[in-house]
Amino acid sequence: MSEAGVQRGKRTAGRPPQDASREFVTPEGVDLRLRIGEAGERAAAFLVDVIILTIALIGVSIVMVGVLAASRARGVEVAAIVWLLIAFFLRTFYFMAFEMHPSAATPGKRMLGLRVIARGGGRLTADAVFARNAMRELEVFLPLSFLFSQGDGVDAWVVLLGLIWSGVFLFFPLFNRDRLRVGDLVAGTMVVKAPRRKLMPDLADERPPGAARVTFTQAQVDAYGVKELHVLEDVLRRRDKATMRAVAQRIQGKIGWEGEPVADGEFLAAYYAALRGRLESRMLFGHRRRDKFDRG
Q1: Helix pair 264-283, 241-255: axis angle to 10 deg
Q2: Which residues lie within the region annotated Disordered (predicted)?
């Protein structure tokens, strides 16, 4: 079986340039295909989150009005400052709290099937979440404050500057292939599609009838490790006849198999079950063979 290295952001040959899918192949040979969240999807998710924040702020405003009415409108200035502080912390920590959750998605992102991940393929850290959301103040809320301050003694050129600023940050994701906003660029994150998928059936329970008559010696099963097991599982799930034929011939040559002729799918299914059983039994005793080169 061919060696699989880590490949990030590599396009499959023959795909159109506008294709938004990316391939992440782990050192164990697991091929993870992810689709980048489109700008329209991200904008819709942000709009949903803004609506939720607006409803929360309306609730806060109603409570503040009730407090002022009970105190006969005393301390209006203090109430206004408190409202501004609540609005700031609400819009700031709303995004951070949800994206630090294991789902790494706000309610808006969940509705659109999106989530935040680290571009390097590692764990999404609190520092990255803080950085990408802190930048939102500069990208969205600060220029918006310029725009809505028109008529309060703010010069027209300041409002124009706010419009230009908003436009630069608004259209920035359209000019890079991974649809990154500036916050993503700074934090090393990206937003991808995370659709709900059904749990795939266990291949060990779906062996073809003919696979039961194929047997292997312990030496033949010990030819490969965990990495090759994952690659073989992927081959069996794809069911591509040409690939299965090539992999079956490669394994048979590697282990020196001289059994009776059998279909490629049956051979691979039998070898998968034998290899998996052997690796699992070794792991019970603390031995984990990473790949065919690991002799530990």
Answers
A1: 60
A2: 1-22
Question: Residue 104, by phi and psi: left (phi above 0), alpha (psi -120 to 50) or beta?
Answer: left
pTM above 0.90, yes or no: no
User: 259-282 burial, b if ≥16 CB within 10 A, otherwise e?
Assistant: eeebebbbbbbbbbbbbbebbeee
Contact between 224 and 292 (Cβ < 8 Å): yes
Return d(Cα 33, Cα 8) in angstroms, integer.
Answer: 10
Please, how many CA atoms are within 13 Å of residue 61, restricted to the half-sphere of its CB? 8
Give the residue extent of every domain in the chain.
39-193, 203-283
| Contact status, residue 250 vs residue 264, Cβ threshold 8 Å | no
Are 250 and 3 spatial neighbours (Cβ–Cβ below 8 Å)?
no
- Summarised one tens digit per residue, pLDDT across range 237-276 is 888 889 889 998 899 888 888 877 888 888 888 888 888 8
Tokens for 6? 């880590």
Crossing angle of helices 76-99 and 39-70, in 10° steps, is: 150
Cα four-point dihedral sign 253, 254, 259, 260: negative
Contacts of 160 (CB under 8 A, 6+ apart): none
Report DSSP letters for 107-155, one per residue: HHHHHTTEEEEETTSS---HHHHHHHHHHHIIIIIHHHHHHHTBTTTB-
